[in-house]
Amino acid sequence: MLKQSRVGALRLRRNEGGGGLSLPQLFDFVIALARADSSVAHSLRNHLNVTETFLIDRSRIPVFEEYLGRVAKGETFGTSATELGKQNVGDLKYDTAITSTPDGLRLSGRKFYSTGNLYADYLYVYAVNAQGDPTKVVVPASRQGVDIADDWDGFGQEFTGSGSTTYTNVAVDDHDVVDDAEGTKLPYFATFPQLYLSAVVAGILQRIVDDAVVLLKARERNFYHAVEAVPADDPLPQTVIGRLASAAHLARVGVLEAAQWLGQAFDSAATGNPDAQLFERAAESTARTKVVIDELALKAAGELFEIAGASAIRRGNRLDRHWRNLRTVTAHNPISYKALAIGRKLVHGTPLPSLSYF
């Protein structure tokens, strides 16, 4: 249904078949979608991220116009970047490789954390070429030799399709190889996917508030020693809901402020001259937002149970899913390293790390 609605084209111009949304409007939509279903929102992360790459460099990399045409039709892109192994997380080194064979170019390797690939039409793959240099290739998800496994076994975000994607001697045409030599080098290229995760967190927080209100209104009895006989009239659970709503508000505001900076940074990049200060401002705003809202959200997921006591823990309510989903999303990038980087910048002027995760 989301593909039919061309949700993946929300950032394209209206005259191109898109939604014409600004970047803050897109993130506000992601928050709303995560409020309804956090796995669905999360599964679109890689597609929407790579679409921004296409938009920024559409005038410099001709094939990106072709990809945007596919996006406009409702087709989606997954990505294959992360690999399991001993290499440092986020150092952009890959074992997945494109090699030259008597039958032409072939792609082989195994990727993990393939969020959204189960639902994608095309896969944007990070690999190395025969010379060992980083390269990217786009192949149809249905091409022979591509195996997208539904093997994600995390305790949260269970329907994001975040398992493994294996490439076994996948045929690669010259046209499939992305020549991005003329592409814009962004000072911070991973801010969008990091902020996206915080948008999912903000959406889950909104849903926690919704569930808390429903839960309280549905209660017909209270503790004998409570302040009021009717639970919905009791100021104590009302106070809990007030705290939950305040956390959800702060999360949304933080995400949208960072999105404003990132939108301005992307606008500068589209001209071919990215503004380094805007990108760093966006990266720092995103990092600060994550440090605060991750802790607030995880606390809120536990505080929800103060609304109803033991009756809230029944499996049929599935209220534990909020903590599990939040813990899964927030585990992508520990806040301790984020806080450390922010502190070093303030105390010593050390720039934020500029590879993955910022």
From TrEMBL:
InterPro entries per the record?
Acyl-CoA_DH_C (IPR013107), Acyl-CoA_Oxase/DH_mid-dom_sf (IPR046373), AcylCo_DH-like_C (IPR036250), AcylCoA_DH/ox_N_sf (IPR037069), AcylCoA_DH/oxidase_NM_dom_sf (IPR009100)
Biological process terms from the Gene Ontology for this record are: L-leucine catabolic process
Q: Would the keyword Oxidoreductase turn up in this protein's UniProt record?
A: yes
List keywords of the entry alphabetically. Answer: Oxidoreductase
Which Gene3D superfamilies does the annotation name?
Acyl-CoA dehydrogenase/oxidase, N-terminal domain (1.10.540.10), Butyryl-CoA Dehydrogenase, subunit A, domain 2 (2.40.110.10), Butyryl-CoA Dehydrogenase, subunit A, domain 3 (1.20.140.10)
* Keyword Oxidoreductase attached: yes
Please give the Gene Ontology molecular function terms for this protein: 3-methylbutanoyl-CoA dehydrogenase activity; flavin adenine dinucleotide binding
**Acyl-CoA dehydrogenase C-terminal domain spans which residues?**
196-334
Q: Please state what the protein is called.
A: Acyl-CoA dehydrogenase C-terminal domain-containing protein
For this protein's source organism, the top of the classification is: Bacteria, Pseudomonadati, Pseudomonadota, Betaproteobacteria, Burkholderiales
